[in-house]
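This section describes the prediction task in plain terms. A model, or a person checking by hand, is given the sequence of a single protein chain and must write out its three-dimensional structure as a string of C-alpha cells. No templates, partner chains or ligands are provided. The sample shown here is typical of the held-out split.
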Amino acid sequence: MTDDTAPERGGGPLSGVLVADFSRVLAGPYATMLLADMGAEVVKVEGPKGDDTRTWMPPVRGDVSTYYLGVNRGKRSIALDLRDSGDARVARELARRADVLVENFKPGGLAKYGLDYGSVSAANPGVVYASISGFGSGAGRDVPGYDLMVQAMSGLMSLTGDPGGPPYRAGISVFDVMAGNHAAIGILAALRHRDATGQGQHVEVNLLSSALTGLVNHSSAYVAGGVVPYRMGNAHPSVFPYEPLPTADNDLIVAAGNDGQFRKLCEVLGIPEVAGDPRFARMADRTARREELRPILVERLATRGALEWFELLVAAGVPCGPINTIDGGFAMAERFGLDPIVEVGEGDRAVPTTRHPIRFSATPASYRLPPPELDEHGDELRKWLTQEEDDDV
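The expected answer:
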C-alpha cells in the first residue's frame, strides 16, 4: 500500500497481508486476531450496532466487555450497514483489495451483497476466502452454529461429567476456538499455495467437523473400533493413573502415561514393589485394575499436600499438576517464565491481554493496536477505500 490513508504495515511473518474480517462473536474473530498478532493488517467490519460480544457482560473492563477485548486486539474497526448501497460498495472494495476475507455469516448469506466467494473471487482472483459455519454449506447450512449446540450434537457432552450424572458442556466454547485455529491454519496453507501459484481459493471450516476431529481418541474409538465411548468423569478410558487423586489437602492431577513414569511414581511414593506387581505391570493391566490400584496410590498421596507432591514428582519426571483457578493458571505460567500477559495499546487505551501462543525466533508476534471502538477507524478506511486510484497491496 502506498497511500497515506491505507492501514499501516506491521511487522511479523504476515506483514503486508490485508485481512477483511466480516466475522462476528468468537471463531472468526479469534482466527483474525491470531493473524493480526502475526503482522497482518486486519480490518474488522461491523454492523451499525457492532459485534455481539461488545454487549456480552459482565465481566467488564471499565464499560467494555472483556469477552470482546479477549479476541479483537490488533484490528481496525469500520461500521458498515450492508443493506445500504454505499456501505455495501465500500465493503466490496475492501474485499477486492484484501488478501484474505474471513466471514461466518449463514452460508450464502453474503451473496445478496455481492460478497460471496464467487463474486469476490471474480474481482479478486488471488483472494483467500475463509468461511466458518456451524454445520457446513450443504444440508446443514440452515442450522445455526452455536458452540453449545455443537458440544451437544458432536457427542462431547456425552463424555463430560460424572458417570452417573448429567452431561456437561466444557467450561469454554471449545469448538469455536478449535474452528478458529483450523481457519487460521487453512488460511496460512492457502496463502502458501497462492504464493506458489498466484491462485486464491475458498477455505471452508465448520464447527461440527472441527469437533469430530478434536475428539481424537474418542472419534477413533468409534470410527476404527466400533466402540461408543461413555462418560467417565475425570478418568481416562485407556490410561491409569491419568486423573485427579486426593492428597493431604487438595487433589493432584497424576498423568503417568507409560510404564517408566509409573515406576518413577511408585518410587517417589515409597512403594516400588507396586510397579513390579504383575497385576500392574503394563498399562492395560493398570487400566483394567484401576479400582484395585487407586486406593494404594491414594493411601500414599495422603501423607503430603498437593504442592509438595508436585515438586517431588516433577523432579522425578512424573507428569502431574495442581488443579488451579484461572489466576493460579496465570501464576503458574509466570513461574515457568512464559510471560502470559502482554499489554496492547497506550495510555488510557492500554489493555492487558493474553500473549499469542506461538513464539517466533525471527519474527515475533506484535501487539500494536488495542481492541477497537466501534467504527474507530471508519473515516480513514472509507477515505482509502473510496479514492479513485487503486494502490498496490
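For orientation: The CA atoms of residues 107 and 137 lie 5 Å apart.
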